[in-house]
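Q: Structure for this?
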Amino acid sequence: MSRIRGIEVKVQKEVLQTRKYGLNEILKKKNEDQSTNSKDDAEKHQIKELLQKLPRLDKIFDVHRKIGEGTFSSVYLGSLRQHASLPETEKRWFAIKHLVPTAHPARIEHELRCLQDMGGKDHVIGVELCLRNLDTIVFIMPYIPHKKFSEYVGEMDAEELRQYMRALLIALRHVHSFGVIHRDVKPSNFLYDRENRRYLLVDFGLAQRLCPAPEEPPAERAPPPAHSNGVRKRTREEEELASGAKRMALDLSTGRPVASPATPAVVASPRRVSAVMREPAAGGASPPAAHGAGARPRCACAGAAAVCAACSARPAPRAPRAGTQGFRPPEVLLKYPQQTTAVDVWASGVVLASALTARYPFFRAGDDVAALAELADLLGTQPLQQAAESLGRRVVTSSVRRGLCLRKLAARLRGTTSISTGSRGSACMRCRLPQEQCLCRDETKKADEFVEGRWVAGFPDSAFALAASLLDPNPRSRVSAAAALLHPFLASPSAPAPPAAPAPHTAPL
Ligand code: ADP
Ligand code: MG
Protein backbone atom coordinates (compact mmCIF):
# COMPACT_ATOMS: atom_id res chain seq x y z
CA MET A 1 0.00 0.00 0.00
CA SER A 2 2.66 2.41 1.04
CA ARG A 3 4.58 1.43 -2.09
CA ILE A 4 1.57 2.28 -4.26
CA ARG A 5 1.19 5.55 -2.44
CA GLY A 6 4.82 6.28 -3.04
CA ILE A 7 4.37 5.78 -6.76
CA GLU A 8 1.27 7.95 -6.76
CA VAL A 9 3.05 10.72 -4.96
CA LYS A 10 5.90 10.51 -7.43
CA VAL A 11 3.56 10.67 -10.42
CA GLN A 12 1.73 13.64 -8.95
CA LYS A 13 4.98 15.43 -8.29
CA GLU A 14 6.09 14.90 -11.89
CA VAL A 15 2.76 16.13 -13.22
CA LEU A 16 3.03 19.25 -11.08
CA GLN A 17 6.61 19.82 -12.14
CA THR A 18 5.69 19.35 -15.80
CA ARG A 19 3.07 22.05 -15.43
CA LYS A 20 5.49 24.38 -13.69
CA TYR A 21 8.69 23.95 -15.75
CA GLY A 22 7.66 22.31 -18.99
CA LEU A 23 8.68 18.87 -20.20
CA ASN A 24 11.95 19.96 -21.84
CA GLU A 25 13.24 21.56 -18.67
CA ILE A 26 12.53 18.45 -16.66
CA LEU A 27 14.19 16.20 -19.21
CA LYS A 28 17.21 18.50 -19.23
CA LYS A 29 17.45 18.45 -15.45
CA LYS A 30 17.07 14.67 -15.41
CA ASN A 31 19.89 14.34 -17.95
CA GLU A 32 22.07 16.65 -15.88
CA ASP A 33 21.36 14.67 -12.73
CA GLN A 34 22.12 11.46 -14.56
CA SER A 35 25.41 12.76 -15.92
CA THR A 36 26.41 14.08 -12.46
CA ASN A 37 25.53 10.71 -10.98
CA SER A 38 27.50 8.84 -13.60
CA LYS A 39 30.44 11.23 -13.09
CA ASP A 40 30.28 10.63 -9.35
CA ASP A 41 30.09 6.89 -9.94
CA ALA A 42 33.08 7.01 -12.29
CA GLU A 43 35.04 9.04 -9.74
CA LYS A 44 34.18 6.63 -6.92
CA HIS A 45 35.23 3.76 -9.16
CA GLN A 46 38.56 5.46 -9.93
CA ILE A 47 39.23 6.04 -6.23
CA LYS A 48 38.36 2.45 -5.41
CA GLU A 49 40.63 1.18 -8.15
CA LEU A 50 43.48 3.42 -6.98
CA LEU A 51 43.14 2.20 -3.40
CA GLN A 52 43.12 -1.42 -4.59
CA LYS A 53 46.27 -0.88 -6.60
CA LEU A 54 47.97 0.97 -3.76
CA PRO A 55 46.82 -0.61 -0.48
CA ARG A 56 49.29 1.45 1.55
CA LEU A 57 47.50 4.60 0.45
CA ASP A 58 44.27 3.12 1.75
CA LYS A 59 45.93 2.32 5.07
CA ILE A 60 47.13 5.86 5.70
CA PHE A 61 44.60 8.10 3.96
CA ASP A 62 40.91 8.64 3.46
CA VAL A 63 40.56 9.64 -0.18
CA HIS A 64 37.49 11.85 -0.48
CA ARG A 65 37.02 13.12 -4.02
CA LYS A 66 38.73 14.24 -7.18
CA ILE A 67 39.85 17.87 -7.04
CA GLY A 68 41.78 18.24 -10.23
CA GLU A 69 42.67 16.62 -13.45
CA GLY A 70 45.52 17.52 -15.74
CA THR A 71 46.86 15.93 -18.89
CA PHE A 72 49.08 13.59 -16.93
CA SER A 73 47.42 13.06 -13.60
CA SER A 74 44.33 12.96 -11.47
CA VAL A 75 44.47 14.78 -8.16
CA TYR A 76 42.37 13.75 -5.15
CA LEU A 77 41.60 15.32 -1.79
CA GLY A 78 42.79 13.21 1.12
CA SER A 79 43.05 13.32 4.89
CA LEU A 80 44.77 11.08 7.43
CA ARG A 81 42.79 8.04 8.55
CA GLN A 82 43.96 8.68 12.10
CA HIS A 83 42.20 12.06 11.91
CA ALA A 84 38.91 10.51 10.80
CA SER A 85 37.15 11.37 14.06
CA LEU A 86 38.37 14.97 14.12
CA PRO A 87 36.12 17.80 12.97
CA GLU A 88 36.80 18.89 9.37
CA THR A 89 38.48 22.11 10.47
CA GLU A 90 41.09 20.25 12.51
CA LYS A 91 42.00 17.69 9.88
CA ARG A 92 45.14 18.02 7.78
CA TRP A 93 44.28 17.98 4.12
CA PHE A 94 46.39 16.66 1.30
CA ALA A 95 46.40 16.70 -2.47
CA ILE A 96 47.07 13.19 -3.74
CA LYS A 97 48.44 13.32 -7.28
CA HIS A 98 48.08 10.05 -9.15
CA LEU A 99 50.31 10.07 -12.20
CA VAL A 100 49.16 8.40 -15.38
CA PRO A 101 50.84 5.00 -15.55
CA THR A 102 52.15 5.69 -19.07
CA ALA A 103 54.35 8.55 -17.85
CA HIS A 104 58.05 7.93 -18.35
CA PRO A 105 59.71 6.76 -15.10
CA ALA A 106 62.58 9.22 -15.60
CA ARG A 107 60.10 12.05 -15.86
CA ILE A 108 58.28 10.99 -12.70
CA GLU A 109 61.60 10.83 -10.88
CA HIS A 110 62.47 14.28 -12.21
CA GLU A 111 59.16 15.76 -11.01
CA LEU A 112 59.66 14.18 -7.60
CA ARG A 113 63.21 15.51 -7.35
CA CYS A 114 62.01 19.01 -8.21
CA LEU A 115 59.42 18.81 -5.43
CA GLN A 116 61.95 17.44 -2.95
CA ASP A 117 64.80 19.82 -3.81
CA MET A 118 62.93 23.06 -4.28
CA GLY A 119 59.54 22.58 -2.71
CA GLY A 120 58.09 23.79 0.56
CA LYS A 121 59.55 27.31 0.24
CA ASP A 122 58.75 30.56 -1.50
CA HIS A 123 55.27 29.48 -2.65
CA VAL A 124 56.61 26.33 -4.32
CA ILE A 125 54.74 23.11 -3.60
CA GLY A 126 56.58 20.47 -1.59
CA VAL A 127 55.99 16.76 -1.24
CA GLU A 128 55.18 14.93 1.99
CA LEU A 129 55.28 11.38 0.76
CA CYS A 130 55.51 9.34 -2.42
CA LEU A 131 53.94 5.90 -2.64
CA ARG A 132 54.46 3.37 -5.38
CA ASN A 133 53.27 -0.09 -6.21
CA LEU A 134 54.29 -1.34 -9.65
CA ASP A 135 53.18 1.37 -12.09
CA THR A 136 50.85 3.13 -9.65
CA ILE A 137 52.55 6.19 -8.24
CA VAL A 138 51.12 8.97 -6.08
CA PHE A 139 52.65 12.13 -4.66
CA ILE A 140 51.13 13.32 -1.40
CA MET A 141 51.35 17.11 -1.17
CA PRO A 142 49.87 19.81 1.06
CA TYR A 143 46.42 20.84 -0.12
CA ILE A 144 45.52 24.44 -0.86
CA PRO A 145 41.91 25.43 -1.52
CA HIS A 146 41.64 27.52 -4.66
CA LYS A 147 39.25 28.70 -7.32
CA LYS A 148 39.53 28.85 -11.06
CA PHE A 149 41.44 31.90 -12.36
CA SER A 150 38.51 32.76 -14.63
CA GLU A 151 36.35 33.24 -11.52
CA TYR A 152 38.48 36.04 -10.07
CA VAL A 153 40.54 37.37 -12.97
CA GLY A 154 38.31 40.41 -13.38
CA GLU A 155 37.92 40.99 -9.64
CA MET A 156 41.49 41.58 -8.54
CA ASP A 157 42.27 45.18 -7.69
CA ALA A 158 45.72 46.73 -7.92
CA GLU A 159 46.87 45.62 -4.46
CA GLU A 160 45.63 42.06 -4.85
CA LEU A 161 47.23 41.80 -8.28
CA ARG A 162 50.48 43.20 -6.90
CA GLN A 163 50.54 40.54 -4.17
CA TYR A 164 49.60 37.79 -6.63
CA MET A 165 52.32 38.72 -9.12
CA ARG A 166 54.87 39.14 -6.33
CA ALA A 167 54.13 35.63 -5.08
CA LEU A 168 54.36 34.19 -8.59
CA LEU A 169 57.68 35.89 -9.28
CA ILE A 170 59.07 34.90 -5.86
CA ALA A 171 58.21 31.29 -6.70
CA LEU A 172 59.87 31.63 -10.11
CA ARG A 173 62.97 33.31 -8.65
CA HIS A 174 63.26 30.36 -6.29
CA VAL A 175 62.83 27.73 -9.02
CA HIS A 176 65.21 29.55 -11.38
CA SER A 177 67.87 29.79 -8.68
CA PHE A 178 68.09 25.98 -8.98
CA GLY A 179 68.71 26.26 -12.72
CA VAL A 180 65.28 24.83 -13.47
CA ILE A 181 62.71 26.06 -15.97
CA HIS A 182 59.16 25.22 -14.83
CA ARG A 183 57.91 25.39 -18.45
CA ASP A 184 54.22 25.30 -17.61
CA VAL A 185 53.55 28.51 -15.73
CA LYS A 186 49.83 29.31 -16.01
CA PRO A 187 47.04 30.03 -13.57
CA SER A 188 45.96 26.40 -13.19
CA ASN A 189 49.50 25.60 -12.01
CA PHE A 190 49.70 28.58 -9.67
CA LEU A 191 47.08 27.90 -7.05
CA TYR A 192 45.67 30.86 -5.17
CA ASP A 193 43.78 30.60 -1.90
CA ARG A 194 42.12 33.97 -2.14
CA GLU A 195 40.66 33.97 1.34
CA ASN A 196 43.96 33.43 3.09
CA ARG A 197 46.18 35.00 0.43
CA ARG A 198 48.23 31.83 0.04
CA TYR A 199 49.86 30.78 -3.18
CA LEU A 200 51.45 27.60 -4.51
CA LEU A 201 53.30 26.92 -7.73
CA VAL A 202 52.54 23.30 -8.60
CA ASP A 203 53.14 20.80 -11.38
CA PHE A 204 56.77 20.22 -12.23
CA GLY A 205 55.78 17.57 -14.75
CA LEU A 206 57.38 19.48 -17.61
CA ALA A 207 60.20 21.12 -15.68
CA GLN A 208 63.55 21.21 -17.40
CA ARG A 209 67.01 21.58 -15.98
CA LEU A 210 68.89 24.48 -17.55
CA CYS A 211 72.27 22.80 -17.60
CA PRO A 212 73.86 20.11 -15.44
CA ALA A 213 74.67 21.49 -12.02
CA PRO A 214 78.30 21.04 -10.85
CA GLU A 215 77.28 18.70 -8.02
CA GLU A 216 75.30 16.54 -10.41
CA PRO A 217 74.40 13.10 -9.02
CA PRO A 218 75.71 10.05 -10.92
CA ALA A 219 74.58 10.12 -14.53
CA GLU A 220 72.18 7.19 -14.30
CA ARG A 221 70.34 8.76 -11.39
CA ALA A 222 70.32 12.32 -12.65
CA PRO A 223 67.03 13.87 -13.65
CA PRO A 224 66.80 13.96 -17.41
CA PRO A 225 67.94 17.20 -18.98
CA ALA A 226 66.04 18.55 -21.94
CA HIS A 227 67.93 16.57 -24.49
CA SER A 228 69.30 13.56 -22.64
CA ASN A 229 70.40 10.77 -24.91
CA GLY A 230 69.59 7.11 -24.68
CA VAL A 231 66.40 7.34 -22.64
CA ARG A 232 64.04 4.64 -23.78
CA LYS A 233 60.97 6.37 -25.01
CA ARG A 234 57.47 5.66 -23.84
CA THR A 235 56.28 8.90 -25.20
CA ARG A 236 53.95 11.13 -23.33
CA GLU A 237 54.26 13.49 -26.26
CA GLU A 238 53.00 10.89 -28.69
CA GLU A 239 49.94 10.43 -26.53
CA GLU A 240 49.43 14.13 -26.57
CA LEU A 241 49.81 14.45 -30.29
CA ALA A 242 47.27 11.70 -30.71
CA SER A 243 44.81 13.38 -28.38
CA GLY A 244 45.53 16.84 -29.76
CA ALA A 245 46.22 18.05 -26.24
CA LYS A 246 47.31 21.64 -25.94
CA ARG A 247 49.91 20.94 -23.33
CA MET A 248 53.03 19.49 -24.91
CA ALA A 249 55.38 17.28 -23.01
CA LEU A 250 59.08 17.78 -23.14
CA ASP A 251 60.79 15.51 -25.58
CA LEU A 252 63.23 13.41 -23.59
CA SER A 253 64.99 11.86 -26.52
CA THR A 254 67.30 13.29 -29.12
CA GLY A 255 66.08 10.88 -31.76
CA ARG A 256 63.98 11.88 -34.68
CA PRO A 257 61.93 15.04 -34.48
CA VAL A 258 58.60 14.18 -32.93
CA ALA A 259 56.17 16.91 -33.59
CA SER A 260 57.52 19.41 -36.02
CA PRO A 261 56.44 19.23 -39.62
CA ALA A 262 59.19 18.79 -42.19
CA THR A 263 58.34 21.98 -43.96
CA PRO A 264 58.31 25.44 -42.48
CA ALA A 265 54.77 26.40 -41.78
CA VAL A 266 52.85 29.03 -43.67
CA VAL A 267 49.51 29.57 -42.03
CA ALA A 268 47.10 32.40 -42.38
CA SER A 269 45.85 33.37 -38.97
CA PRO A 270 42.27 34.46 -38.44
CA ARG A 271 43.60 38.02 -38.36
CA ARG A 272 45.06 37.70 -41.83
CA VAL A 273 48.60 37.85 -40.68
CA SER A 274 50.72 35.08 -42.00
CA ALA A 275 54.09 34.11 -40.71
CA VAL A 276 56.87 32.15 -42.27
CA MET A 277 59.46 30.75 -39.94
CA ARG A 278 62.80 29.57 -41.07
CA GLU A 279 66.41 29.62 -40.09
CA PRO A 280 68.14 32.72 -41.38
CA ALA A 281 70.17 32.68 -44.51
CA ALA A 282 73.92 32.96 -44.03
CA GLY A 283 75.07 36.46 -43.43
CA GLY A 284 71.96 37.29 -41.42
CA ALA A 285 72.05 39.39 -38.30
CA SER A 286 72.86 36.59 -35.91
CA PRO A 287 75.84 34.29 -35.76
CA PRO A 288 74.98 30.84 -37.09
CA ALA A 289 76.71 29.24 -34.10
CA ALA A 290 74.11 30.76 -31.79
CA HIS A 291 71.37 28.57 -33.17
CA GLY A 292 73.26 25.69 -34.67
CA ALA A 293 72.59 26.55 -38.28
CA GLY A 294 75.58 26.13 -40.49
CA ALA A 295 76.57 28.76 -43.06
CA ARG A 296 74.35 28.40 -46.08
CA PRO A 297 74.10 30.49 -49.20
CA ARG A 298 71.18 32.89 -49.12
CA CYS A 299 68.27 31.25 -50.84
CA ALA A 300 66.22 32.99 -53.48
CA CYS A 301 63.12 32.53 -51.36
CA ALA A 302 64.64 34.39 -48.39
CA GLY A 303 62.30 37.16 -47.35
CA ALA A 304 59.44 35.99 -49.55
CA ALA A 305 56.22 34.74 -48.05
CA ALA A 306 56.73 31.33 -49.62
CA VAL A 307 59.18 28.52 -49.19
CA CYS A 308 61.02 26.92 -52.09
CA ALA A 309 61.37 23.17 -52.48
CA ALA A 310 65.03 23.18 -51.43
CA CYS A 311 64.28 24.98 -48.19
CA SER A 312 61.28 22.74 -47.59
CA ALA A 313 63.58 19.76 -47.76
CA ARG A 314 65.81 21.10 -44.97
CA PRO A 315 65.48 19.30 -41.68
CA ALA A 316 63.06 21.04 -39.38
CA PRO A 317 64.62 22.95 -36.48
CA ARG A 318 64.33 21.10 -33.23
CA ALA A 319 63.79 22.61 -29.84
CA PRO A 320 61.84 21.91 -26.66
CA ARG A 321 58.28 23.08 -26.88
CA ALA A 322 56.87 21.67 -23.67
CA GLY A 323 54.27 23.98 -22.24
CA THR A 324 50.75 25.18 -22.86
CA GLN A 325 49.43 27.00 -25.90
CA GLY A 326 48.87 30.66 -25.15
CA PHE A 327 51.77 30.80 -22.69
CA ARG A 328 54.61 29.96 -25.08
CA PRO A 329 57.12 32.74 -25.70
CA PRO A 330 58.51 33.66 -29.14
CA GLU A 331 61.68 31.60 -28.59
CA VAL A 332 59.60 28.45 -28.12
CA LEU A 333 57.29 29.24 -31.04
CA LEU A 334 60.37 29.91 -33.18
CA LYS A 335 61.97 26.63 -32.10
CA TYR A 336 65.04 28.27 -30.66
CA PRO A 337 66.95 25.46 -28.98
CA GLN A 338 68.79 27.28 -26.15
CA GLN A 339 65.79 28.17 -24.04
CA THR A 340 66.21 29.61 -20.58
CA THR A 341 64.22 30.53 -17.50
CA ALA A 342 62.97 33.51 -19.56
CA VAL A 343 60.34 31.07 -20.86
CA ASP A 344 58.64 31.18 -17.44
CA VAL A 345 59.00 34.95 -17.16
CA TRP A 346 57.12 35.38 -20.44
CA ALA A 347 54.32 33.13 -19.14
CA SER A 348 54.06 35.25 -16.00
CA GLY A 349 53.70 38.27 -18.30
CA VAL A 350 50.78 36.57 -20.02
CA VAL A 351 49.18 36.02 -16.61
CA LEU A 352 49.66 39.71 -15.75
CA ALA A 353 48.25 40.86 -19.10
CA SER A 354 45.29 38.57 -18.49
CA ALA A 355 44.61 40.12 -15.10
CA LEU A 356 45.03 43.69 -16.34
CA THR A 357 42.60 43.18 -19.21
CA ALA A 358 40.30 40.80 -17.27
CA ARG A 359 40.53 38.35 -20.16
CA TYR A 360 41.32 34.68 -19.78
CA PRO A 361 42.66 33.10 -21.84
CA PHE A 362 44.55 36.10 -23.13
CA PHE A 363 45.95 34.42 -26.26
CA ARG A 364 43.75 31.96 -28.06
CA ALA A 365 45.67 30.83 -31.15
CA GLY A 366 45.36 27.16 -31.94
CA ASP A 367 48.84 26.55 -33.34
CA ASP A 368 52.32 27.99 -33.23
CA VAL A 369 52.16 30.08 -36.40
CA ALA A 370 48.79 31.55 -35.48
CA ALA A 371 50.28 32.22 -32.03
CA LEU A 372 53.17 34.13 -33.64
CA ALA A 373 50.63 36.15 -35.61
CA GLU A 374 48.83 36.96 -32.36
CA LEU A 375 52.10 38.13 -30.85
CA ALA A 376 52.76 40.27 -33.92
CA ASP A 377 49.34 41.83 -33.45
CA LEU A 378 50.04 42.70 -29.83
CA LEU A 379 53.73 43.59 -29.90
CA GLY A 380 54.02 44.79 -33.48
CA THR A 381 55.69 42.95 -36.32
CA GLN A 382 58.96 44.85 -36.08
CA PRO A 383 59.80 44.06 -32.42
CA LEU A 384 58.92 40.42 -33.05
CA GLN A 385 61.04 40.29 -36.18
CA GLN A 386 63.98 41.90 -34.38
CA ALA A 387 63.72 39.39 -31.55
CA ALA A 388 63.54 36.55 -34.08
CA GLU A 389 66.63 37.88 -35.88
CA SER A 390 68.58 37.92 -32.65
CA LEU A 391 67.67 34.25 -32.19
CA GLY A 392 68.69 33.39 -35.72
CA ARG A 393 65.16 33.09 -37.03
CA ARG A 394 63.22 35.09 -39.56
CA VAL A 395 59.56 35.96 -39.30
CA VAL A 396 57.91 37.12 -42.51
CA THR A 397 54.42 38.53 -42.32
CA SER A 398 52.06 39.46 -45.10
CA SER A 399 51.16 42.71 -43.39
CA VAL A 400 52.79 45.10 -40.99
CA ARG A 401 51.31 45.37 -37.52
CA ARG A 402 52.33 48.26 -35.32
CA GLY A 403 51.18 46.62 -32.14
CA LEU A 404 48.49 47.32 -29.60
CA CYS A 405 48.71 49.47 -26.50
CA LEU A 406 48.04 47.18 -23.53
CA ARG A 407 46.90 50.18 -21.51
CA LYS A 408 44.25 51.15 -24.05
CA LEU A 409 43.27 47.51 -24.46
CA ALA A 410 42.77 47.09 -20.71
CA ALA A 411 40.76 50.31 -20.53
CA ARG A 412 38.58 49.19 -23.43
CA LEU A 413 38.03 45.65 -22.20
CA ARG A 414 37.30 46.81 -18.67
CA GLY A 415 34.94 49.46 -19.95
CA THR A 416 36.99 52.32 -18.50
CA THR A 417 36.38 55.25 -20.75
CA SER A 418 38.17 58.10 -18.99
CA ILE A 419 41.27 57.80 -21.09
CA SER A 420 42.85 60.93 -22.32
CA THR A 421 44.39 60.28 -25.67
CA GLY A 422 45.69 63.76 -26.18
CA SER A 423 43.72 64.91 -29.16
CA ARG A 424 40.24 63.67 -28.32
CA GLY A 425 37.82 63.72 -31.19
CA SER A 426 40.30 63.42 -34.04
CA ALA A 427 40.78 60.09 -35.76
CA CYS A 428 43.92 57.99 -35.40
CA MET A 429 46.10 58.37 -38.47
CA ARG A 430 46.76 54.64 -38.56
CA CYS A 431 43.60 52.78 -37.69
CA ARG A 432 41.35 55.73 -38.60
CA LEU A 433 39.23 55.13 -35.54
CA PRO A 434 38.27 58.02 -33.24
CA GLN A 435 41.03 58.49 -30.64
CA GLU A 436 38.75 57.17 -27.87
CA GLN A 437 38.43 53.86 -29.71
CA CYS A 438 41.93 53.53 -31.08
CA LEU A 439 44.11 50.76 -29.61
CA CYS A 440 47.28 51.57 -31.55
CA ARG A 441 50.56 51.54 -29.68
CA ASP A 442 52.40 54.83 -29.58
CA GLU A 443 55.73 53.85 -31.11
CA THR A 444 57.40 57.01 -29.87
CA LYS A 445 56.95 55.86 -26.27
CA LYS A 446 58.49 52.87 -24.56
CA ALA A 447 55.84 50.52 -23.17
CA ASP A 448 58.09 49.54 -20.26
CA GLU A 449 58.29 53.12 -18.98
CA PHE A 450 55.56 54.60 -16.84
CA VAL A 451 54.20 57.84 -15.52
CA GLU A 452 54.29 58.07 -11.74
CA GLY A 453 50.83 58.62 -10.29
CA ARG A 454 48.95 57.75 -13.47
CA TRP A 455 46.27 55.07 -13.24
CA VAL A 456 44.82 53.19 -16.18
CA ALA A 457 41.80 50.90 -16.01
CA GLY A 458 42.10 50.72 -12.22
CA PHE A 459 45.81 49.88 -12.14
CA PRO A 460 48.92 52.00 -11.69
CA ASP A 461 50.75 52.71 -14.92
CA SER A 462 53.74 50.79 -13.51
CA ALA A 463 51.75 47.53 -13.74
CA PHE A 464 51.56 47.95 -17.52
CA ALA A 465 55.24 48.83 -17.66
CA LEU A 466 56.02 45.60 -15.81
CA ALA A 467 53.83 43.62 -18.23
CA ALA A 468 55.83 45.09 -21.13
CA SER A 469 59.11 44.03 -19.47
CA LEU A 470 57.86 40.50 -18.86
CA LEU A 471 56.52 40.30 -22.41
CA ASP A 472 59.75 41.40 -24.03
CA PRO A 473 59.86 39.29 -27.22
CA ASN A 474 63.62 38.93 -26.94
CA PRO A 475 64.48 36.38 -24.22
CA ARG A 476 67.97 37.85 -23.91
CA SER A 477 66.74 41.25 -22.81
CA ARG A 478 63.62 40.00 -21.01
CA VAL A 479 63.69 40.85 -17.32
CA SER A 480 64.51 38.01 -14.89
CA ALA A 481 62.13 37.02 -12.10
CA ALA A 482 64.60 38.40 -9.54
CA ALA A 483 64.86 41.74 -11.35
CA ALA A 484 61.11 41.93 -11.87
CA LEU A 485 60.65 41.77 -8.10
CA LEU A 486 62.55 45.06 -7.87
CA HIS A 487 60.16 46.70 -10.36
CA PRO A 488 58.30 49.71 -8.88
CA PHE A 489 54.93 47.95 -9.28
CA LEU A 490 56.07 45.08 -7.07
CA ALA A 491 58.85 46.49 -4.93
CA SER A 492 56.84 48.82 -2.72
CA PRO A 493 55.26 47.32 0.44
CA SER A 494 51.81 48.03 -0.98
CA ALA A 495 50.45 49.40 -4.22
CA PRO A 496 49.87 53.16 -4.20
CA ALA A 497 46.26 54.05 -3.53
CA PRO A 498 44.23 54.88 -6.60
CA PRO A 499 43.01 58.45 -6.99
CA ALA A 500 39.81 59.06 -4.97
CA ALA A 501 37.81 59.88 -8.09
CA PRO A 502 38.87 58.54 -11.46
CA ALA A 503 40.89 61.58 -12.41
CA PRO A 504 41.53 62.28 -16.05
CA HIS A 505 44.93 61.05 -17.05
CA THR A 506 47.50 63.76 -17.14
CA ALA A 507 49.55 62.35 -19.96
CA PRO A 508 48.25 60.80 -23.14
CA LEU A 509 48.43 57.03 -23.42
P1 ADP B 1 48.94 17.90 -14.17
O1 ADP B 1 50.40 17.61 -14.29
O2 ADP B 1 48.12 16.74 -14.57
O3 ADP B 1 48.53 19.19 -14.81
P2 ADP B 1 48.77 19.28 -11.61
O4 ADP B 1 49.85 19.04 -10.61
O5 ADP B 1 48.83 20.58 -12.35
O6 ADP B 1 48.68 18.05 -12.61
O7 ADP B 1 47.35 19.19 -10.89
C1 ADP B 1 46.15 19.28 -11.62
C2 ADP B 1 45.15 20.12 -10.83
O8 ADP B 1 44.95 19.51 -9.55
C3 ADP B 1 45.61 21.55 -10.53
O9 ADP B 1 45.31 22.44 -11.58
C4 ADP B 1 44.80 21.85 -9.27
O10 ADP B 1 43.49 22.23 -9.60
C5 ADP B 1 44.76 20.50 -8.55
N1 ADP B 1 45.88 20.45 -7.58
C6 ADP B 1 47.13 20.06 -7.79
N2 ADP B 1 47.88 20.17 -6.68
C7 ADP B 1 47.08 20.68 -5.73
C8 ADP B 1 47.27 21.06 -4.36
N3 ADP B 1 48.42 20.92 -3.76
N4 ADP B 1 46.21 21.55 -3.70
C9 ADP B 1 45.01 21.68 -4.30
N5 ADP B 1 44.76 21.34 -5.58
C10 ADP B 1 45.78 20.85 -6.29
MG1 MG C 1 48.94 21.19 -14.30
